[in-house]
Design a protein that fits this description.
single chain; alpha/beta; Rossmann fold; 8-stranded mixed beta sheet; two-stranded antiparallel ribbon; 7 helices; 35% helix; globular
């Protein structure tokens, strides 16, 4: 419950619509992955993808690659949610499927070789990559979950997001535990 309270305070500090998010985390039993699911939703709210007129009315797709830590409850929780006035769709990416059509890609892959394969598939696509493996952002991922003092936190690799023209809200960056800045090339 302490973690959920911290999440609500953090989201309130961002000015997010946290009442719905708190319900989401409780719907997933307030677990670590319930909190992470709430964060996934808010990451989608506070990210801006390059304009694509062909996709203007398409759902925002949140994909899960690797083992699904959320279970069936995530699809139920997201089915009535909206991001930027668009429906939210949950998809599961299997080994041979192309993840480049995802808006948000949660990668739950402890195998570092497999993680690199997935990140390589989306490295030039505007896909917001999120994971919770150790050193996720240092491996090229954009947002990595970490546990600090028994609280779910996140780190951001701003350079990886900027490389594919994804814009992350300054409010999201302020809440991050650590932001890995874009590297300037002379």
């Amino acid at each position: 419950m302490k973690i959920l309270a911290r999440l609500i305070v953090s989201l309130a500090g961002l000015g997010l619509a946290w009442s719905g998010t708190a319900g989401m985390a409780q719907g997933l039993e307030g677990s670590e992955y319930g909190i992470k699911a709430a964060y996934l939703y808010n990451f989608a709210l506070f990210a801006e993808w390059p304009a694509d007129p062909a996709m203007a009315d398409a759902p925002v797709t949140i994909c899960i690659a690797g083992k699904d830590p959320f279970g069936a409850a995530i699809a139920e929780e997201f089915k009535t949610r909206r991001v930027h006035d668009r429906a939210v769709e949950i998809r599961y990416i299997r080994d041979q499927q192309d993840p480049r059509s995802c808006h948000v890609l949660f990668i739950n892959e402890p195998n570092s070789r497999r993680l690199q394969e997935i990140l390589q598939k989306v490295k030039d696509a505007p896909v917001l990559t999120v994971g919770d493996s150790e050193k996720f952002i240092d491996s090229g991922g954009m947002i990595g979950f970490i546990i600090v003092d028994n609280h779910v936190q996140f780190e951001v690799n701003q350079g990886a997001a900027e490389n594919v023209d994804l814009k992350l809200s300054s409010r999201m960056l302020q809440l991050a535990y650590r932001v890995k800045e874009a590297v300037e090339h002379p």
